[in-house]
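Whether sequence alone determines local backbone shape is best considered at the level of individual chains. Part of our work consisted of pairing the sequence of a single chain with a tokenised description of its backbone. This step matters because it turns folding into a mapping between discrete strings. For completeness, the protein is quoted in full, as a sequence line and a line of structure tokens:

_____
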Amino acid sequence: MAALLTAIGCAAPPLQAADIPAASDGRIAPRLQNLGTYSRQATTRNSQAQTYFDQGLVLAYAFNHAEAVRSFREAARLDPDFAMAYWGEAYALGPNINAPMDPGAVSPAWAAIQQALAKKAGATEVERALIEALAKRYAADPKADRATLDRAYANAMRDLARRYATDADVLAIAAESLMDTRPWNYWTNDGNPRPDTLDVLAFIEQAIAINPNHPLALHLHIHALEASQQPERAIASADRLGGMVPGAGHLVHMPSHLFFRVGRYRDAIDANLKAVAVDEDYISQCRAQGLYPAAYYPHNIHFLWIAYAFEGQSGEAIKAARAAASKPHGEMAHPLQQFIVAPLHTLVRFARWDDILAEPKPPENLKFVEAAWHYARGMALAAREQFDAADAELAAVRAAIADPAFPADLVLVNSSPARITEIAAHTLAGQIAAARGHHDQALAELAAAVRVEDSLTYNEPPDWPFPTRHYLGAELLAAGRPVEAEAVYFEDLERHPRNAWSLQGLVQALQAQGAERQADLKEAESRRSAVWPQADVKLASSKW
């Protein structure tokens, strides 16, 4: 979900005071329900200001930053000398792992932290330290280098985490500050930690040891480990977080990131069904605008789509895909093209060839979607052995990649759209060759697709949604190479545990190896029978 604000353009407003409609009693923010019991006692004599401070902190921890800003401002309205309310406003206006600093928030953030500095004399020692550390994140000059400021803040927070090693908030915020300097990029593709990752995990896990119910620590634990080779290390955090703050849709959703990584696809479905309902209620009641309803809410639907697909519920997956695709409107359609391609990928995944060929051509300005449309059509035509038409669709996919107008980046996409579309080109070329019986060419193209897929930056849902190893394994079986196919399926099951496509392929690879693999075959058949209890499709191969 990187670079949301920059790519969306309109996103969350900087929330100048004049932008916030006050209630008849002067309130800036609503009092929200079902946000759990988390509280950090701050220096204020006004109990209502403390209540809104706690609400703002939980909302910031839940990445609903615009609503958090309103809550912190209400706390400051109730107690104008409340230094930590101004700290909270400046904190929530800053960058995060899903969004860089909004240029429109620079001045309000600077003003807020100046207020906190001016009123810090009555604050506690740790509050003063937090205010002084956050002051390093902002500058009077709106053109000051953002990376330098973020690193200065992260270094200051690292020092605070070591000084206040029993304060769970300090530890969690320190971890977040380090993560913000390298959004969504905490592990190499071969599983090694990036710089700061080990400190991030140490701070998070120390915070959880102090307070097992800390919402930010649990939230970040999932993000810090989901791309690692040990995602199960955060399963306890995911199981705990889901019901802790039932009124914060993003925290209700977050466990699904871990559930998907460990093969708990049904649990991922359930988490996102709940999150969608929570966010729809919040958006309708609070008339929320900006980043949260534009990206976080449809992200739940997008995730619901991929989870349904991996559970073999094609009807629900297609329904969710179309729901996600329907969310971007007008100028939002271009940056959110990753939502719009979901139905096309789903129809390919479940071999809905008639439906694909009935799909209308996308608008010409949606180049990423148009390339996916050509890819889907090519896959349908190759399956029908209409090779000249399939070749024309492949040529259109390749031409899209070379088009100077092809988007360089998109919202909710962590890899280059051109790089993602290269996977489409290789996969389609491989399927065309396979349908023609040209095994060597097909295997070369599908192996290339796997290499490009493996090079993508981690994302959830994945930037390329369905594993290309499913096609490579099937073609190895078709070429009479079951031992190699078995290895491909095992590797995919490491990456996508309990996925039925690779389990189906593994069974077929073991069947092809004869009597000496009977014990392994029995185990694989047992694993395959344990998945897809509510599937509405039956697999003939690892492809479809």
The longest helix spans residues 265-286. Confidence is low (pLDDT under 50) at residues 1-20.
